[in-house]
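sry for the spam today, last one i promise. struct tokens for design, 373 residues
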């Protein structure tokens, strides 16, 4: 049973013919939730999702607590937020270490990938030894020093394996020339990949201004849950949440290169942002309950914003919905379709390669297939 869906990309044989993009929705696993208790649903969610399981569970508990009108302690909300952010760090790191070399036809660094895989479990253990942060109404008491150490170790790991320089130094770079200079000097897979995009004139391919969603809150729920937009489907990507970063604004209208750079921006900022959550300098994602009693949970997964909604009657779930970012990004007028349609002028091999680059720049964590007509 697929819980993520699949995208089929059809590249026509004749140049000038639009690219076909078909999103095959996932199996409706939410049917399994109907009639279950909220606690049973929370046990099912991580078992059914191999992609972004922490973020999925986070969104689920927020939706269920919203429906039950449960407010958790600030400490619990911060623990959950930090776990989801560490999962994002792991996912972005793995993409840069494993997937980007393969897109160039090179071999990935499996040792570094195995090291990246250990970060989240260690963080989970240090954070939740005496509690279950994603249980309903959880009461978490964190010992912060071990968490700070793991975050610092994660930052050092990223410095060595992804950026080749301190994260704050990389984040201070401005403009394409500075980024190209970094890529030429960095002895990492990420640096080689960005240099490859520059050198092969692919960095600025498929450049489209982003269509943004409003800030998520009770007032903006209709826009977030809608699948239509007059200006094209609004994006639900990691680029969107980093679009105002000074490093990205200096690159102009985002093409493929800017979207990959956005993943690096997020990767470089996450250690500091996790510290800000744990030291109470920023607020974690809240549960929302509307006037009908429906609960909503929206969290930022590595791929983009993820939404769960739930209604509960007599301690049983009566409705449940999940809106993954893929559903929005690969809609008929979504950002992926616009970028892919811009590849019509390239020859067949180049179109296939660029189609793979588009998918990996926008939403690299799901199954897809590229076919040529």
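last one done:
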């Amino acid at each position: 049973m697929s819980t993520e869906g699949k995208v089929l990309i059809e590249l026509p044989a004749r140049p000038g013919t639009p690219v076909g993009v078909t999103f095959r929705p996932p199996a409706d696993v939410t049917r399994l939730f109907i009639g279950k208790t909220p606690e049973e649903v929370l046990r099912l969610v991580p078992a059914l999702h191999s992609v972004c399981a922490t973020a999925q569970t986070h969104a689920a508990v927020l939706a269920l607590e919203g429906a039950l009108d449960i407010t958790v302690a600030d400490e619990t909300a911060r623990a959950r937020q930090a776990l989801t952010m560490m999962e994002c760090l792991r996912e972005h790191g793995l993409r840069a270490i494993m997937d980007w070399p393969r897109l160039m036809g090179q071999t990935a660094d499996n040792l570094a990938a195995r090291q990246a895989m250990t970060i989240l479990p260690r963080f989970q253990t240090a954070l939740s030894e005496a509690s279950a942060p994603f249980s309903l109404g959880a009461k978490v008491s964190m010992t912060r020093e071990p968490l700070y150490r793991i975050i610092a170790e994660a930052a050092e790991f990223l410095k060595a394996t992804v950026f080749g320089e301190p994260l704050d130094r990389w984040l201070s770079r401005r403009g394409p020339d500075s980024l190209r200079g970094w890529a030429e000097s960095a002895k990492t897979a990420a640096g080689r990949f960005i240099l490859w995009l520059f050198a092969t004139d692919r960095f600025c391919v498929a450049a489209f201004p982003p269509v943004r969603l409003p800030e998520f809150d009770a007032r903006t729920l209709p826009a977030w849950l809608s699948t239509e937009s007059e200006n094209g489907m609004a994006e639900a990507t990691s680029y969107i949440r980093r679009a105002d970063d000074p490093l990205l604004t200096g690159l102009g209208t985002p093409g493929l290169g800017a979207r990959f750079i956005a993943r690096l921006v997020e990767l470089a900022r996450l250690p500091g942002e996790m510290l800000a959550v744990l030291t109470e300098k920023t607020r974690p994602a809240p549960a929302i309950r509307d006037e009908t009693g429906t609960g909503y949970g929206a969290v930022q997964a590595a791929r983009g914003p993820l939404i769960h909604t739930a209604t509960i009657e007599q301690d049983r779930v009566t409705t449940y919905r999940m809106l993954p970012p893929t559903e929005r990004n690969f809609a008929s007028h979504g950002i992926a379709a616009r970028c892919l349609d811009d590849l019509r002028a390239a020859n067949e091999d180049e179109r296939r390669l660029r189609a793979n680059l588009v998918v990996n720049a926008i939403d690299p964590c799901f199954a897809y297939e590229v076919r040529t007509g």
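The chain has a mean pLDDT of 88. ok im logging off now
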